[in-house]
Amino acid sequence: MDDRGLRELACGANRELARLGLATLAFGNVSVVDRAAGVVAIKASGVACGDLEPDDVALVSLADGTAADPGRRASSDTPTHLELYRAFAGTGAVIHIHSPYATSWAQAARPIPPLGTTHADHFRGPVPVTRELDRDEIAGDYEAATGRVIVERFADGPDPLDVPAVLVASHGAFIWGTDATSALDNAVALEHVAAIACHQAALGPLEPIPAELRDRHFDRKHGPTAYYGQPARVRTP
Amino acid sequence: MDDRGLRELACGANRELARLGLATLAFGNVSVVDRAAGVVAIKASGVACGDLEPDDVALVSLADGTAADPGRRASSDTPTHLELYRAFAGTGAVIHIHSPYATSWAQAARPIPPLGTTHADHFRGPVPVTRELDRDEIAGDYEAATGRVIVERFADGPDPLDVPAVLVASHGAFIWGTDATSALDNAVALEHVAAIACHQAALGPLEPIPAELRDRHFDRKHGPTAYYGQPARVRTP
Amino acid sequence: MDDRGLRELACGANRELARLGLATLAFGNVSVVDRAAGVVAIKASGVACGDLEPDDVALVSLADGTAADPGRRASSDTPTHLELYRAFAGTGAVIHIHSPYATSWAQAARPIPPLGTTHADHFRGPVPVTRELDRDEIAGDYEAATGRVIVERFADGPDPLDVPAVLVASHGAFIWGTDATSALDNAVALEHVAAIACHQAALGPLEPIPAELRDRHFDRKHGPTAYYGQPARVRTP
Amino acid sequence: MDDRGLRELACGANRELARLGLATLAFGNVSVVDRAAGVVAIKASGVACGDLEPDDVALVSLADGTAADPGRRASSDTPTHLELYRAFAGTGAVIHIHSPYATSWAQAARPIPPLGTTHADHFRGPVPVTRELDRDEIAGDYEAATGRVIVERFADGPDPLDVPAVLVASHGAFIWGTDATSALDNAVALEHVAAIACHQAALGPLEPIPAELRDRHFDRKHGPTAYYGQPARVRTP
């Protein structure tokens, strides 16, 4: 894909994030990667998602984060996105949001348990929460350190394509997918299950569903024997 | 009704479900039945309700679930819908949703008590919750088993046309009606009463209303002496 | 005002109620009265507020509730509206809603305390809750009895124009005003303060504001020395 | 800026407040100041923000609050706005809202702790709450007294441009900024963090984030070494 196409793809995904109600003010951004070209396209810093034009998309090097063209300054969260692309093979798009319900779980530093099949349709197991950054990480290259604590959280599992979202403690959520469409779907699903779980907290204790139900739902959509969706719609792992 | 008419009816009902805000992503589907022809029309699997076109509606046999034409693959929830049509005479449409408030009650595995007349206007008594599926049911023909635990729940009452909704534990809600319009009304009513009940939970214990008030409200809309609505609008039981 | 004008006024007010998000399904109705003519115009039974046309407005006699013309059947809640017009002088419009937050307070049978100046700007003191109807009242002329328990609740105060709303236990809210515009404003205010109070319940105990602050806010909008609004906008008590 | 320009600026900001869903009924107003001319432009009293026309903007003297032209009567909250402009140098716009979540904190008389980076991006530390007004303040020049308890609250810090919002106990929120755009952004941010914090309250105790994380986020947007946004976008303190 040429630079223009990559900009338009990233622009459309950021505007869709705003349209979905997931990006208030300039909180929230979407990036997409062209792994063959080694380029990441991401929202420019300080621009509201809903107002984005293709020229408000910054292109940076996947390898070292340097600007790939003399355009707008990239989102300050870019180093976090880059850490995720480098560590999570198969990821084609990354999203960052401060949506009301997912962020309430992130601020509470609580993983979201798999409380129902809505969750299991998208995430095989809890949506995990990172540890808090330490004082040196906050004072240093803070945004890259944010990416590193996410990667660290997945080091011993789960597979990031089985649980394509994470809560950063005290902060918000990062979500990813094989492409922009699946990442946006996962972001909608995350906020939806975070909201259901918040409402449920008013009704009693939060008990995870059995592992076999969790796996049945995840596998009917994503496993090798998936039977959800139309035959042509095959997941590219 | 010919196949085209049935497709258009099902398509319109699925689009209305999305417009009502009850179907996020591809969570949610509506089916309608033509009992004379023995055909059920249901949303194709993996297609968002709001984007549905008549060609995205699958037709299947009410008797055995086989495809009634070589169209799109039917929703993976189709076997659940079929179980309900076979067991619940008089049902003309079935809806499945993962809406935020009804699903919080389903995940909590709590029936929604009749806490007010809004509830009683649509449901004569609590909206029940199914038992959890066992390991074999989850591993086997899971979606048909989901339908069977719903039917099991109504075996000793209530009459499914008096309580046209159920919560499937750990999952979401199924709703039905004599036709697509009444099923959609019941789905809106279910999410509305689930939300009121959730808000009420913050204010104190949840006490059901007296049976005589519950029956008065249900009967003024649905009983043999109903006096709600216009004279021409008679409920077809 | 002639019949056509009264129908159009009632129709517009019912449509506005739907546009404001306060009338889900056919839950909710607005009536207006022409006291000189002794006629009340109200939504026809079973018609959704948002779809109302002037011909869907029923005209009934204020004195005895009989149909004032051979039009549509009036809302089943009409006898409640009539009781309020007869008892509360100066009331020009009455609204009934089952909105999510106000109804959660009604179902909990808790009056909404004056917790802030938003409340005090519209209601001088708590929004009261009626007693539950007894078995005979439910079995008899239920809707008129609903009106009578509301009137009973105001018999020893407050002045219904100082507190133009009530919660009917286990049911929903009735709201009124000197005209349709003020009644609609009061309905919006009621749902707004009910929502704030529900959110506040998560943060600690609910303490009413001091009486002098409550009165200062009410009087700056509604009292004889009101200084809120433009000079031409005088309240007609 | 001439009077017409000032009216149009204030009008647009009030309409934007309504469009953002932050001003229900006539609750809420925005003012802007022209410090060189000594004039404040504010919404006329009793007019809904969303319907405002430039002629519905009142111009008053910053020095003494007298009408600067024979137009509409200014919002009854004008004396509060004036107190803030006089005490908080660098403030170019002031907003007052009764939004559902921020007001629930104000009514609970609880400051909003910095629970996450969404908060820290806009407010360096808790959003404070004023003391309650005493009986004499309520009986006297109430609106000016409201401004004075806000100013009193900031007398020993924080810097009002570092924490550009306050909760008035039992009342609602006031928000400000260097210009109308930044004040509107701060108002959106306040309601957003108030909502997240309310949801979080259902999940466990509310623990503030570490001071170093709070400062890192505030400084990357607002400090002398800010690296958020585009180079041309410099904050005018």
CATH topology of chain A: L-fuculose-1-phosphate Aldolase
Mean pLDDT of chain A: 93
Strand content of chain A: 5-15%
Number of domains of chain A: 1
Please report the two chains with the greatest interface, counting residues with C-beta closer than 8 angstroms to the partner's C-beta.
A-B, 29 and 32 residues
Shape descriptor of chain A: globular
| CATH class annotation of chain A | Alpha Beta
Query: Spans of chain A of 5+ residues with little confidence (pLDDT < 50)?
Result: 232-237
CATH superfamily of chain A: Class II aldolase/adducin N-terminal domain
For the biggest sheet of chain A, the summary is: 6 strands, antiparallel
Structural class of chain A: alpha+beta
Question: What percent of residues of chain A adopt helix (DSSP H or I)?
Answer: 25-40%
Task: Name the quaternary structure.
Answer: homotetramer
Radius of gyration of chain A: 17 Å
> In whole angstroms, how far apart are the ends of chain A?
20 Å
Give a summary of the structure in a few sentences.
Chain A has eight helices and six strands; from the N terminus they run αβββαβααααββαα. By secondary structure, chain A is α+β, with helices and mostly antiparallel strands.
Provide a descriptive summary of the structure in words.
4 copies of one chain form a homotetramer. The first copy, chain A, is of the alpha+beta class and about 240 residues long. The first copy, chain A, has one domain: Class II aldolase/adducin N-terminal domain (L-fuculose-1-phosphate Aldolase). In chain A, about 40% of the residues lie in helices and about 10% in strands. Chain A is built from 8 helices and 6 strands, in the order αβββαβααααββαα. A 6-stranded antiparallel β-sheet of chain A has the order 3-2-1-4-6-5, sandwiched between helices. In chain A, a hairpin with a 4-residue loop joins strand 1 and strand 2. In chain A, helix 2 runs parallel beside helix 6 (about 140-155) and helix 3 crosses helix 7. The longest helix of chain A is centred in the last third of the chain and has 22 residues, at about 180-200. The first copy, chain A, starts with a helix and ends in a 15-residue tail after the last helix. At the C-D interface, helix 7 and helix 8 of C face helix 3 and helix 5 of D.
